[in-house]
Amino acid sequence: MKYKLPKSSGFLPNPLDPRDLWEDEIVGGDVPSEPLPPQYRTENLPFEPQGSLPFCCSFATTTMFEEYYRRKSGGVMIKLSQPHLFFNSGGGPTGSYFRGNLEI
């Protein structure tokens, strides 16, 4: 019998971490902060299809870092490896954690 990967979006919710701040805490006034933006959007990000692999967190992380670097360096482009990030951040058959990707 052939093993089938479980159907998943590739995103696993992070385990509870005291460093996390949740929007409802900020909006409720429990945590002082700047006003939250009404939406989160970064213009002109390139799109790369990830296929059937659960690499969505790694694709999002590498794309955002590549774009950040391009803007800060005056246009120098770098290309990061999504599979390298995925496997080194603890990714598995059902996906990976954003925190793990960001920490790597």
Could you write a compact summary of the structure shown?
The chain has 104 residues and is mostly helical. It contains four helices and two strands.
Keywords summarizing the entry:
mainly alpha; 104 residues; 2 strands
Name the helicity range. Answer: 25-40%
Low-pLDDT ranges: none
What is the string of SSEs from the N terminus onward? Answer: EHHHEH
- What's the story with the biggest beta sheet? 2 strands, parallel
What is the tally of beta strands?
2
Shape: globular
Strand order of the largest sheet: 1-2
Query: pLDDT average, as an integer?
Result: 75
Radius of gyration: 16 Å
| Tally of alpha and pi helices | 4
User: How large is the share of residues in beta strands?
Assistant: under 5%
**Protein structure class:** mainly alpha
The end-to-end span amounts to 36 Å
Question: Would you spell out the secondary-structure blueprint of this structure?
Answer:
Elements: E1 10-11, H1 23-27, H2 56-72, H3 82-88, E2 95-96, H4 98-103
Parallel strand pairs: 1-2
